Amino acid sequence: MEIIYEDDAILVVRKDAGIATETAKLGQKDMVSLLKNYRVKKHEEPFIGLVHRLDQPVEGILLVAKTSNAAGIISKHLKEHDIEKRYYAIACGTLTESGEFTDYIRFDKKNNVSSVVSEKDPEGKKAELSYEVLENLKIEGEDCTLVLVTLHTGRHHQIRVQFSAHGYPLYADRKYGTKVEGVNVALCSCALSFVHPVNSRIMDFSITPIGKAFMPCEYFTKMIK
């Protein structure tokens, strides 16, 4: 577990793909448990305010609060869309131009799956994102596209569901349309920008993916150089 930033109010950490943000499964480690143990070892109160989540197969930046007051303020900012979240994703297929998706998504809690539905569906919630095309590439002979996604709403499995519904499922996303085995879904929470809940400073964090699915991308090799 990599601590990217920490102060008295917040923790910004890097979650590896394959680790749940929080789980009720006995014996399975998750980020909340790891962070509580981390705080105990520092002789601190083991409070962890979970203000947003990342899907288990997704890697990237996770923000948590260290106090209930900070958790409340951050949650308020999230509801008001004052926190900017961006993701790297590899979509199967060739996208040549940047664009945006606007759909309505319904969440099936029982099966932990979401789907794009009609605007008239009473359980559908509006989902909006925009994306920038960064690189066209081939992975094991398959045409793919690396994109930078900006979320404008925060729906369950939103990026995965919308790209799949528009004919471009994410690479290695076995739940929403691809059959690639042995790697986690090519999705990384790569940038987070928000107002600090205590001192009101603008906080900006960004990372580069380390997951196996992203290794064919020359884009990140150029960034490192």
What report would you give on this structure?
There is one protein chain. This protein is of the alpha+beta class. The protein has one domain (2-224): 2-Layer Sandwich (Pseudouridine synthase). The protein contains 4 helices and 11 strands; from the N terminus they run E-E-H-E-E-H-E-E-E-E-E-H-E-E-H. The chain has helices spanning 31-41, 68-79, 158-165, 218-224, and strands at 2-6, 10-15, 49-50, 59-65, 84-92, 99-108, 113-117, 125-139, 142-151, 187-195, 202-206. Strands 1, 2, 3, 4, 5, 6, 7, 8, 9, 10 and 11 form an 11-stranded mixed sheet that branches. The chain is globular, with a radius of gyration of 18 Å. The protein starts with a strand and ends with a helix.
CATH class: Alpha Beta
CATH fold naming: Pseudouridine synthase
**How many strands, which pairing sense, and closed or not: the largest β-sheet?**
11 strands, mixed
The helix content is 10-25%
Cα distance spanning the termini:
25 Å
Shape: globular
Content of β-strand = 35-45%
| Total domain units | 1
CATH superfamily: Pseudouridine synthase
**Helix and strand run:** EEHEEHEEEEEHEEH
Structural class of the helices, strands and pairings? alpha+beta
Number of strands: 11
Number of helices: 4
**CATH architectural category:** 2-Layer Sandwich
Uncertain runs? none
